[in-house]
Automatic annotation (TrEMBL):
The lineage of its organism: Bacteria, Pseudomonadati, Pseudomonadota, Gammaproteobacteria, Pseudomonadales. This is Cu(I)-responsive transcriptional regulator. It is found in: Cytoplasm. Keywords: Cytoplasm, DNA-binding, Transcription, Transcription regulation. Residues 133-155 are annotated as: Disordered. Gene3D superfamilies: 1.10.1660.10. The keyword Ligase does not apply. Transmembrane segments: none annotated. Its main location: cytoplasm. NCBIfam families: CueR. The keyword Transferase does not apply. InterPro entries: CueR (IPR011789), DNA-bd_dom_put_sf (IPR009061), MerR-type_HTH_dom (IPR000551), MerR_fam (IPR047057), Tscrpt_reg_MerR_DNA-bd (IPR015358). It holds the Pfam family MerR-DNA-bind. Residues 1-69 form the HTH merR-type domain. It comes from Marinobacter iranensis.
């Protein structure tokens, strides 16, 4: 089948299929005499696997590792489980960060009058954080002199 058919059956766009070939996530497709890519059902199955892994938020590097495990019939399922749990922990951390952002934005919005006046605690907060970061980056870095501020070493 051609790349368009493979894309339709796998749910992966033709552009992404070419990209996955380029980075070595999938092998280069067999080409016809005219230069067209041809895919078989096994390759489409691999593309579906990649699509599902991407849907679950795995990175390309993680998907490459998962593909190796998937193709290795002597693998330990514990390796796959460890990858999945590690990824889930990363997603939970990202969710916590996003929830903290939502909370901050809602808190700021609750304190904004939302009227015709220019006063806006949202903009004030953003400006204060920016100013504080600038002050930290412009503050001279104190480099201690040799032995200053460190416990005396015993000789």
């Amino acid at each position: 089948m051609n790349i368009g058919q493979a894309a339709k059956l796998s749910g992966v766009s033709a552009k992404m299929i070419r990209y996955y070939e380029q980075i070595g996530l999938i092998p280069q497709a067999i080409r016809s005499d005219a230069g067209y890519r041809h895919y078989n059902s096994t390759e489409v199955h691999s593309l579906r696997f990649i699509r599902r892994a991407r849907d679950l938020g795995f990175s390309v590097e993680q998907i490459a590792a998962l593909l190796v495990l998937w193709r290795d019939r002597d693998r330990a399922s514990g390796d796959v489980k460890a990858m999945a749990l590690s990824h889930a922990a990363g997603l939970k951390a990202k969710i916590a960060e996003l929830q903290a952002m939502v909370h901050s934005l809602e808190h700021l919005a609750d304190h904004c009058q939302g009227n015709d006046r220019p006063d806006c605690p949202i903009l004030t907060d953003l400006a204060e954080l920016t100013a504080a970061a600038e002050q930290r980056s412009q503050a001279p870095q104190r480099v201690p002199r040799f032995g200053a501020g460190t416990p005396a070493s015993s000789h």
